[in-house]
Recover the amino acids of this structure.
């Protein structure tokens, strides 16, 4: 990902260890949009599943 400043591993660790902030949500959403067309059974597809889970949790807790 040329020019991408998002560090996926760092973001996922932060989400799992601390409260999921609005900035984390925005970073996860940006990454989701970057890889939303990932082919099945790829690292990106696995990442996409995790991101969808965390985005859903955030939205349930903060957007209702």
């Amino acid at each position: 990902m040329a020019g991408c400043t998002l560090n996926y591993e760092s973001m996922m660790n932060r989400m799992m260890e601390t409260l999921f902030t609005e900035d984390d949500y925005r970073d996860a959403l940006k990454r989701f949009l970057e890889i939303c067309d990932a082919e099945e059974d790829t690292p990106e597809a696995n990442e996409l599943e995790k991101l969808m889970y965390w985005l859903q949790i955030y939205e349930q807790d903060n957007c209702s």
